[in-house]
Design goal:
Elements lengths: L1 H29 L8 H14 L3 H7 L5 E2 L11 H14 L4 E7 L6 H21 L7 E7 L10 H7 L1 E7 L8
Parallel strand pairs: 2-3
Antiparallel strand pairs: 1-4, 2-4
Helix pairs in contact: 3-4, 4-5
Length: about 180
């Protein structure tokens, strides 16, 4: 009799375990998962490529500028950015009412204080280059967000590169306006 009770208990436990396993599998299928590669990486790359090809007139009209991505732990503007920065300097010099905000961003590698410094240094390097091209320094503001404003949560090499960027905001607003 004890063997029958033990056998019945084992069968019941196995049946419950099977049901629980099936239920968890079904529940796991309902959990949204990030794709293997975040689509924002390609979207941002395509957007930046298109914005890099703008003429000076298109920049001045659209007020939309590309993000410049950086190599890991670098504050030196990447080689490909100089042609864009020259066009941007020409736009700013031709339109004295325009102002520029340069926002430095980093990936998640490194501590918070270092990433704020790195973001500010990247933005400062861009500002220095524009000033060397005749743009008045008081028309440019810089801000560092460090790793606080990622475009993607993808921690792959491409995802981290997407987040290591300088973002430009071209505006006609007065500095005393709210941003």
């Amino acid at each position: 009799m004890n063997i029958l009770k033990l056998f019945t208990a084992c069968v019941a436990a196995a049946a419950l375990a099977a049901c629980a396993a099936n239920k968890n599998t079904e529940a796991d299928d309902d959990i949204p998962r990030l794709p293997e590669r975040d689509p924002i990486i390609q979207i941002e790359a395509d957007k930046n490529a298109k914005l890099l090809d703008q003429t000076e007139a298109e920049m001045a009209e659209s007020l939309k500028l590309p993000d410049i991505t950086y190599k890991f732990d670098s504050i030196r503007p990447p080689d490909y950015s100089y042609e864009f920065l020259d066009k941007l300097a020409n736009v700013l010099n031709a339109h004295p009412s325009m102002k520029l905000i340069i926002e430095g961003n980093t990936d998640i590698v490194g501590d918070k204080d270092y990433n704020y410094w790195l973001g500010a240094s990247r933005a400062s390097a861009m500002k220095s280059y524009l000033v060397s091209r005749g743009v008045l320094a008081d028309r440019i503001r810089i801000h560092s967000y460090g790793s606080d404003r990622p475009l993607t949560l993808d921690t792959s090499k491409e995802g981290r590169l997407t987040n290591r960027r300088v973002h430009f905001v071209l505006t006609k607003r007065e500095w005393n306006s709210v941003y």
